[in-house]
Design brief:
alpha/beta; four-stranded parallel beta sheet; 2 domains; Rossmann fold
Protein backbone atom coordinates (compact mmCIF):
# COMPACT_ATOMS: atom_id res chain seq x y z
CA UNK A 1 0.00 0.00 0.00
CA UNK A 2 1.17 3.53 -0.83
CA UNK A 3 2.18 5.76 2.08
CA UNK A 4 -0.45 8.34 3.07
CA UNK A 5 2.02 11.17 2.46
CA UNK A 6 2.85 10.04 -1.07
CA UNK A 7 1.65 12.01 -4.10
CA UNK A 8 1.39 9.99 -7.32
CA UNK A 9 2.16 11.65 -10.67
CA UNK A 10 0.67 10.07 -13.80
CA UNK A 11 3.03 11.57 -16.37
CA UNK A 12 3.01 11.55 -20.17
CA UNK A 13 6.49 10.46 -21.27
CA UNK A 14 6.55 13.31 -23.83
CA UNK A 15 5.69 15.97 -21.25
CA UNK A 16 8.23 17.40 -18.75
CA UNK A 17 11.48 15.42 -18.79
CA UNK A 18 11.97 14.02 -15.27
CA UNK A 19 14.59 11.37 -16.05
CA UNK A 20 17.31 13.34 -14.26
CA UNK A 21 15.32 13.80 -11.04
CA UNK A 22 13.74 10.34 -10.57
CA UNK A 23 15.27 6.97 -9.73
CA UNK A 24 14.41 3.72 -11.48
CA UNK A 25 11.49 3.12 -9.12
CA UNK A 26 9.99 6.51 -10.04
CA UNK A 27 10.72 8.22 -6.72
CA UNK A 28 11.53 11.90 -7.23
CA UNK A 29 14.86 12.83 -5.66
CA UNK A 30 14.20 16.58 -5.60
CA UNK A 31 10.61 16.48 -4.34
CA UNK A 32 10.16 14.35 -1.22
CA UNK A 33 7.00 12.25 -1.17
CA UNK A 34 6.51 12.35 -4.96
CA UNK A 35 6.38 9.19 -7.08
CA UNK A 36 6.21 9.33 -10.89
CA UNK A 37 4.43 6.76 -13.09
CA UNK A 38 5.12 7.22 -16.81
CA UNK A 39 2.54 6.59 -19.54
CA UNK A 40 2.80 6.87 -23.36
CA UNK A 41 0.07 9.54 -23.32
CA UNK A 42 -1.95 11.37 -20.67
CA UNK A 43 -5.05 10.36 -22.65
CA UNK A 44 -4.52 6.84 -21.27
CA UNK A 45 -5.31 8.09 -17.77
CA UNK A 46 -8.75 6.89 -16.73
CA UNK A 47 -10.69 8.12 -13.68
CA UNK A 48 -10.48 4.60 -12.29
CA UNK A 49 -6.68 4.91 -12.20
CA UNK A 50 -6.92 8.07 -10.10
CA UNK A 51 -9.49 6.49 -7.80
CA UNK A 52 -7.31 3.40 -7.54
CA UNK A 53 -4.32 5.50 -6.43
CA UNK A 54 -6.36 6.90 -3.54
CA UNK A 55 -7.63 3.44 -2.61
CA UNK A 56 -4.02 2.25 -2.54
CA UNK A 57 -3.21 4.93 0.03
CA UNK A 58 -1.98 7.95 -1.97
CA UNK A 59 -2.92 11.33 -0.51
CA UNK A 60 -2.81 13.25 -3.83
CA UNK A 61 -2.57 12.73 -7.60
CA UNK A 62 -0.93 14.90 -10.29
CA UNK A 63 -1.88 14.30 -13.93
CA UNK A 64 0.79 15.71 -16.26
CA UNK A 65 0.40 15.85 -20.03
CA UNK A 66 1.71 17.78 -23.01
CA UNK A 67 0.64 21.36 -23.51
CA UNK A 68 -2.94 21.64 -24.76
CA UNK A 69 -2.90 21.65 -28.55
CA UNK A 70 0.50 19.95 -28.70
CA UNK A 71 -0.42 16.32 -27.93
CA UNK A 72 1.62 13.73 -29.81
CA UNK A 73 -1.57 11.69 -30.21
CA UNK A 74 -3.58 14.85 -31.07
CA UNK A 75 -6.45 14.67 -28.56
CA UNK A 76 -5.15 12.65 -25.60
CA UNK A 77 -4.54 15.56 -23.22
CA UNK A 78 -7.82 17.22 -24.16
CA UNK A 79 -9.74 14.04 -23.35
CA UNK A 80 -8.32 13.65 -19.83
CA UNK A 81 -8.66 17.39 -19.20
CA UNK A 82 -12.38 17.22 -20.05
CA UNK A 83 -12.81 14.17 -17.81
CA UNK A 84 -11.21 15.96 -14.88
CA UNK A 85 -13.49 18.96 -15.47
CA UNK A 86 -16.57 16.73 -15.67
CA UNK A 87 -17.15 17.59 -19.34
CA UNK A 88 -16.61 14.05 -20.66
CA UNK A 89 -17.65 10.64 -19.43
CA UNK A 90 -16.51 8.74 -17.58
CA UNK A 91 -15.56 11.36 -15.05
CA UNK A 92 -14.30 11.21 -11.49
CA UNK A 93 -16.71 9.94 -8.88
CA UNK A 94 -18.19 12.43 -6.45
CA UNK A 95 -16.40 10.64 -3.62
CA UNK A 96 -13.01 11.86 -4.95
CA UNK A 97 -11.86 15.13 -3.36
CA UNK A 98 -11.06 17.44 -6.30
CA UNK A 99 -8.63 19.48 -4.20
CA UNK A 100 -6.37 16.41 -4.06
CA UNK A 101 -6.08 16.21 -7.88
CA UNK A 102 -3.80 18.57 -9.87
CA UNK A 103 -3.46 18.78 -13.68
CA UNK A 104 -0.31 20.15 -15.37
CA UNK A 105 0.15 20.70 -19.12
CA UNK A 106 3.85 21.10 -19.80
CA UNK A 107 6.31 20.76 -22.66
CA UNK A 108 9.32 18.45 -22.41
CA UNK A 109 11.57 21.41 -21.58
CA UNK A 110 9.55 22.56 -18.56
CA UNK A 111 11.09 20.30 -15.92
CA UNK A 112 11.77 23.26 -13.62
CA UNK A 113 8.12 24.30 -13.65
CA UNK A 114 7.11 20.71 -12.98
CA UNK A 115 9.36 20.57 -9.89
CA UNK A 116 8.07 23.89 -8.57
CA UNK A 117 4.41 23.00 -9.07
CA UNK A 118 4.91 19.51 -7.60
CA UNK A 119 6.68 20.84 -4.46
CA UNK A 120 3.91 23.34 -3.83
CA UNK A 121 1.21 20.70 -4.28
CA UNK A 122 2.94 18.15 -2.04
CA UNK A 123 3.24 20.78 0.71
CA UNK A 124 -0.45 21.62 0.31
CA UNK A 125 -1.47 17.96 0.54
CA UNK A 126 0.60 17.46 3.70
CA UNK A 127 -1.38 20.26 5.32
CA UNK A 128 -4.68 18.47 4.75
CA UNK A 129 -6.19 16.06 7.21
CA UNK A 130 -5.49 12.40 6.40
CA UNK A 131 -7.95 10.66 4.12
CA UNK A 132 -10.47 8.56 5.99
CA UNK A 133 -10.19 4.87 5.30
CA UNK A 134 -12.99 3.47 3.22
CA UNK A 135 -15.50 1.62 5.44
CA UNK A 136 -15.41 -2.12 5.13
CA UNK A 137 -18.33 -3.61 3.30
CA UNK A 138 -20.94 -5.00 5.68
CA UNK A 139 -21.37 -8.76 5.38
CA UNK A 140 -24.49 -9.83 3.57
CA UNK A 141 -27.15 -11.31 5.88
CA UNK A 142 -27.76 -14.99 5.50
CA UNK A 143 -30.99 -15.81 3.67
CA UNK A 144 -33.89 -16.55 6.02
CA UNK A 145 -34.84 -20.20 6.29
CA UNK A 146 -38.09 -21.09 4.59
CA UNK A 147 -40.85 -22.19 7.05
CA UNK A 148 -41.68 -25.87 6.91
CA UNK A 149 -44.92 -26.74 5.16
CA UNK A 150 -47.73 -27.59 7.67
CA UNK A 151 -48.64 -31.26 7.94
CA UNK A 152 -51.90 -32.05 6.14
CA UNK A 153 -54.24 -34.51 7.89
CA UNK A 154 -55.44 -37.32 5.58
CA UNK A 155 -59.06 -37.09 4.42
CA UNK A 156 -61.73 -39.57 5.54
CA UNK A 157 -61.67 -41.27 2.12
CA UNK A 158 -57.92 -41.83 2.36
CA UNK A 159 -58.33 -43.21 5.90
CA UNK A 160 -60.93 -45.74 4.67
CA UNK A 161 -58.69 -46.78 1.76
CA UNK A 162 -55.75 -47.30 4.13
CA UNK A 163 -57.92 -49.34 6.53
CA UNK A 164 -59.22 -51.53 3.71
CA UNK A 165 -55.69 -52.12 2.46
CA UNK A 166 -54.57 -53.25 5.93
CA UNK A 167 -57.57 -55.57 6.58
CA UNK A 168 -57.52 -57.24 3.16
CA UNK A 169 -54.67 -59.71 3.62
CA UNK A 170 -53.43 -61.51 0.51
CA UNK A 171 -54.54 -65.14 0.03
CA UNK A 172 -51.84 -67.71 0.72
CA UNK A 173 -50.47 -69.41 -2.35
CA UNK A 174 -51.64 -73.01 -2.95
CA UNK A 175 -48.83 -75.54 -2.84
CA UNK A 176 -48.80 -78.85 -4.76
CA UNK A 177 -49.36 -80.73 -1.47
CA UNK A 178 -52.43 -78.64 -0.73
CA UNK A 179 -53.76 -79.39 -4.21
CA UNK A 180 -53.35 -83.14 -3.65
CA UNK A 181 -55.18 -82.96 -0.31
CA UNK A 182 -57.99 -81.01 -1.88
CA UNK A 183 -58.32 -83.60 -4.64
CA UNK A 184 -58.48 -86.45 -2.07
CA UNK A 185 -61.16 -84.62 -0.17
CA UNK A 186 -63.28 -84.32 -3.31
CA UNK A 187 -62.93 -88.04 -4.02
CA UNK A 188 -63.94 -88.97 -0.45
CA UNK A 189 -66.91 -86.70 -0.62
CA UNK A 190 -68.02 -88.26 -3.89
CA UNK A 191 -67.83 -91.81 -2.47
CA UNK A 192 -69.61 -91.04 0.80
CA UNK A 193 -72.39 -88.75 -0.34
CA UNK A 194 -73.39 -89.16 -3.95
CA UNK A 195 -73.63 -92.04 -6.37
CA UNK A 196 -73.17 -95.62 -5.01
CA UNK A 197 -70.66 -98.09 -6.50
CA UNK A 198 -71.91 -100.13 -9.53
CA UNK A 199 -71.62 -103.55 -7.74
CA UNK A 200 -73.97 -102.52 -4.96
CA UNK A 201 -76.51 -101.32 -7.54
CA UNK A 202 -76.47 -104.71 -9.33
CA UNK A 203 -76.94 -106.59 -6.05
CA UNK A 204 -79.93 -104.49 -5.13
CA UNK A 205 -81.49 -104.94 -8.59
CA UNK A 206 -81.13 -108.76 -8.40
CA UNK A 207 -82.80 -108.83 -4.98
CA UNK A 208 -85.68 -106.81 -6.29
CA UNK A 209 -86.27 -109.26 -9.18
CA UNK A 210 -86.25 -112.26 -6.80
CA UNK A 211 -88.95 -110.67 -4.70
CA UNK A 212 -91.12 -110.24 -7.78
CA UNK A 213 -90.81 -113.91 -8.64
Amino acid sequence: MTDQKTVITLLCERAADVDGICDKAGNCTTVAGLKVVKLPCSGMVQPLMIEGAFKAGASGVIVTGCQIGDCYYREGNRMIRERLLGERTPGLKKTVERRRVLALWLSRLQRGKFEAEAKEFVAYIKGLEPLAAAPAAAPKPAPAAKPAAPAVAPSDDKKEDAKAAIESKPTAETTPADADKAAEGKVDAATTSGDKPAEEKKAEESKAEEKKD
